[in-house]
Design goal:
With 103 residues, this protein is an all-alpha fold. 66% of the residues lie in helices and 0% in strands.
Length: 103
């Protein structure tokens, strides 16, 4: 047995700093995994939009879901009335194949 005049750790081997660093590393790993999933999801959305045959319908979907434009902004951008934009959007969604379960 070795004796020392060094003070004992009151945490009995556990360091709060060490625990915090481990938690930060775990959260960073989780965030990175989520970012990879989101990038893959966005690629899938782009692929599905590009699969729509009509360029006009593609444009409506891109403006709404990739550029995050409001309906009114899309109508102004395309020079259509809001009702026509809604109609085009419905037609575009009818052409998109959405999987039953999205992970």
């Amino acid at each position: 047995m070795t004796y020392s005049d060094m003070p004992r750790n009151p945490n009995k081997g556990h360091s709060r700093l060490e625990d915090a660093v481990i938690q930060i590393i775990e959260l960073e790993t989780e965030i990175n995994q989520d970012m990879i999933k989101l990038v893959e999801l966005k690629k899938d959305i782009i692929r599905r939009i590009k699969a729509v045959e009509s360029f006009e319908l593609q444009t409506v979907l891109e403006l709404r879901y990739l550029s995050y434009m409001r309906w009114e902004e899309i109508a102004i951008e395309l020079g259509y009335g809001i009702d026509n934009v809604f109609r085009l959007h419905r037609n575009a969604l009818d052409e998109i194949k959405i999987p039953e379960r999205i992970q």
